[in-house]
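TICKET: design request
STATUS: open
ATTACHED STRUCTURE:
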């Protein structure tokens, strides 16, 4: 089940958590973050080819591509036995921004986005069926955990894909990791 914890930026132990999807979407909308739940239009197996995954969500993908002018879409999958998982995790754990907005739909598994907006940090646990759109230039980081296990559809307005501008702020080091966060729910 999805979760949202809002922390004061200087008190990473003092978060308030909600698990009600409508309340999460409403609170995130107030800070410009799109949060939706998608259902597949057709069944597919976990090991499905990329095209089968895309076909299952094509209507929602088309709607967003038309609305936002996305130029490319792909599917990324990470499993616990992926040899470069630790290096990949480290890349996303540092606070960064993008000149484009970051859109992720969780086909399977889960991950934890942290958004640093003004004097708050929003920790959003995204799970299967969740779509999150982080606005351009929003400070954030992402934790996939020690044993990542997820499949995401990613949408981009540029052909460059994922390009980060790291802030150099060490804020992410003070907040619970994905694995620790899960123990608090």
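STATUS: resolved
RESOLUTION: sequence designed for all positions
ATTACHED SEQUENCE:
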């Amino acid at each position: 089940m999805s979760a949202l914890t809002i922390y004061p930026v200087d008190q990473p132990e003092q978060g308030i958590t909600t698990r009600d999807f409508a309340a999460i979407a409403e609170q995130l909308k107030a800070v410009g973050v799109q949060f939706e739940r998608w259902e597949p239009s057709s069944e597919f197996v976990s090991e499905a080819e990329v095209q089968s995954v895309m076909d299952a969500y094509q209507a929602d993908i088309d709607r967003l591509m038309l609305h936002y002018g996305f130029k490319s879409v792909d599917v990324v999958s990470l499993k616990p036995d992926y040899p470069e998982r630790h290096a990949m995790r480290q890349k996303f754990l540092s606070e960064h921004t993008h000149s484009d907005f970051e859109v992720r739909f969780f086909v399977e598994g889960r991950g934890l986005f942290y958004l640093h907006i003004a004097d708050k940090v929003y920790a959003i646990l995204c799970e299967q069926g969740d779509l999150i759109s982080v606005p351009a230039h929003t400070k954030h980081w992402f934790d996939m955990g020690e044993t990542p296990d997820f499949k995401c559809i990613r949408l981009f307005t540029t052909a460059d894909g994922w390009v980060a501008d790291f802030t150099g702020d060490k804020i992410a080091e003070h907040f619970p990791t994905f694995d620790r966060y899960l123990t608090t729910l």
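CLOSING REMARK: The first strand starts at residue 3 and ends at 8. Residues 3-184 form a domain with the Jelly Rolls fold (CATH 2.60.120.10).
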